[in-house]
Amino acid sequence: MIRKCLFPAAGYGTRFLPATKSMPKEMLPIVNKPLIQYGVEEALSAGLTQIGFVTGRGKRALEDHFDTNYELEHQIAGSSKETLLAGIRALIEQCSFSYTRQTEMKGLGHAILTGEPLVGDESFAVVLADDFCVHEPDSVLEQMVALHETHGCSIVAVEEVPWEKTASYGIVSGEAVGDDLVRVTTMVEKPEPSVAASNLAVIGRYLLTPDIFEILKSIPPGRNGEIQITDALNEQAKAGQVLAYRFKGRRFDCGSIEGFVAATNYIYQQHYDVGENYPRP
Ligand code: G1P
Question: I need a labelling partner for 26 at 20 to 30 A (CA). Which of 52, 57, 188, 257 fits?
Answer without folding.
Answer: 188
